[in-house]
Design a protein that fits this description.
111 residues; single chain; elongated; 5 strands; alpha/beta; 16% helix; 5-stranded mixed sheet
């Protein structure tokens, strides 16, 4: 809640291990609810908590109330992502696809 300048409603001690959208979130995840039209999806969702606007009522799970739930959720999502390891200069990452006819200039890296 502090990271997104939000206010916790409900139990703020629930452990959160990931961040996913309403359709993908499960126990231990935080999700977001943008607008009242998504309330039925929130009630059906298994997420442990949600980032919401002021209009979303408590339903037994903790909420983080913010002015802009989508932007706040994006900030939270970034906190759960592993930091990217930069590709060394002049290398092509093994998972990258470079067309066989492509020519790369000296020092170009492909991640």
């Amino acid at each position: 809640a502090e990271a997104v300048r939000g206010e916790v409603a409900g139990n703020g001690d629930v452990p959160i291990a990931g961040a996913h959208t309403l359709g993908e979130a499960g126990p231990g995840d935080i999700t977001f609810v943008e607008g009242d039209k998504h309330l039925s999806a929130w009630h059906a969702c298994q997420a442990s908590a949600a980032v919401v606007s002021d209009s979303v009522p408590l339903n037994g799970r903790p909420l983080i109330r913010v002015a802009d739930p989508l932007t706040a959720f994006a900030t939270i999502l970034l906190r759960f992502r592993a930091p990217r390891t930069p590709v060394a200069d002049g290398t092509v990452h093994p998972t990258a696809f470079v067309h066989p006819t492509a020519t790369l200039a000296d020092g170009v890296s492909v991640g």
